[in-house]
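Risk register update: the risk of archive-format incompatibility is retired. Evidence:
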Amino acid sequence: MWANRSVFDYHTRHAFLPAAPMTFPSQPPASAASTGADVARAFKRALVSQMHPNMLFAVLLPFLIALVGAILLLWLFWTPLTDWLRVEASQWEMVNRVDDWLVTVGLFSLKLYLVPLLAAAILLPVSGILGLAIAAVFVMPLVLRHVSKREYAGLSRLGRNATVVSVWNAIWVSVIFALGWLLTLPFWLVPPMALLLSVFWWAFAFSRMLRVDAIVEHASPEERRWLLARNNIGFWIIGLICALLNLLPPAWIILPVYSSLVYAHYGLDSLQRLRARQPLVIDN
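Archived output:
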């Protein structure tokens, strides 16, 4: 049964026949203290990595793509979108009542400001998720190459169909993000849902998109499933922190690459510790 299987020891670099099949550690999710320490270490390491000239240069790609995407979206869709929103807003009874009251008391017209704000709230996140998707598919390999050489040189690449998995993951996360963002826009009128929903959807985008790309090249499918389940809370905490940073416009410039570095350090460090606890079974 085991004639065609061997075990590779990362320390001795030799293969030998296993006595039993490899099994992943059966244990509950990491404790809060352990997860917090791992997340903090990932952010610290990512900050150091971000200062490298290669990573500073990598910042330009997703930022420029998001910027060009925003300009094209505003140029192509601003007028038809705002015209459609004005027609729709004229049929919203609550908006009409508030608008009439504001105009009567001599303040301002709600529709005058509401329509442009809604249009910006629809178009700008689309360019943002485009920049994040570009970072996940095209920048993450550069990030992994950078950190692998310096801190994870002994970590073998056992991922399968990494590009296909990365592209598919970026597509479905972007679609869910866009649909969820649009469908929950009406709730923005209820304070403080605008802030909460924005943070939630960006935390979803960061977590679901970058956690897969961070380990897809190095982890085998079995390892990837184990790591995603084991570190689910940690991945979401990183996504939440990145989503909060995303509320600060200056952070938009570096966040796609910096968040990729954080996820890369967190994911590869977890994979390294997993393999240190057991040998690796390789099919011949």
